[in-house]
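This section describes the prediction task in plain terms. A model, or a person checking by hand, is given the sequence of a single protein chain and must write out its three-dimensional structure as a string of tokens. No templates, partner chains or ligands are provided. The sample shown here is typical of the held-out split.
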Amino acid sequence: MLNVGVLGVGHLGKFHLNNWKEIQGVKLVGFYDPNDANAAAVAAKYNLKRFEDPEELIENCDAVDIVAPTTYHFELCELALRKGRHVFVEKPLADNMDQARKIVKLAREANVKFQVGHVERFNPAFLALTGIELNPMFIEVHRLAQFNPRGTEVSVILDLMIHDIDIILKIVKSDVKNISASGVAVMTDTPDLANVRIEFNNGCVANLTSSRISMKKMRKMRFFQKDAYIGIDFLEKKTEIIKLKTDENEQAFTFDIETPNGTRTIAIANPEIPDANAIKLELESFKNAITGNTPTAVTVEDGLMAMDVAHQILQKIQAAKYVVH
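The expected answer:
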């Protein structure tokens, strides 16, 4: 039985509690949250022990799930890692790059399982592409959300866009060559909307737009590669693959088009998307990495790389403010 403690039981932390309760082989030891009113409500609803001190909770656990605000990630990760506990921490990994690098060093020294909560890796619409060869040369992303004061302690880059940065870095597998970015703060003191162009050494270009002040929600990513167009709707849980038909046994809707090189058959496939809970899947994968002694799905290094690109974007936006035209 894996003893797990949850640090931070706000809006997202409650989702984590609900999912941990459904995962076999896990015992919820308790939780830590400094907010007395929220903690009392959680203790009563979940019949779960509240620990007054995070260190005491960590000492009683095999693994901790850190769902506290980003500003507390470093100190809680450090506490857990120095005690040799396995760590799951919500994205972004830390509040700044210095803290993120220290967490990576501590995790390596502790030789424990460490996973970062980039939940879109477990979105069933993305998982539907498992086994599909992805070699995009152009990527277009739109992640739009309505304004919500929760989570605004960080910029839209670290709040929303970092999900897409992580996915893109996993798929492209090439070093970043150049970043161009523009952004503007509207409702908060940090950028609330941004447009970013990332160029990779292998020639791939990614164009990302993120906003947390939109009238409608959208979470879409499109890949354009030599042999196919692939669209993912993370919000509606839909995936579409359009490509030249090469396999006669392929199950897809087809139609013919005339080209200068003759008739070509286009195949359109919509993979079946299972009804899956992404948060439960990521927490289960963390638990399985511990019990099976396998690598975590989203490593501490993955979290660092996503943060590194995000902070380069923020630096570009900040520098653009001082350009004299």
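For orientation: The longest strand covers residues 176-184.
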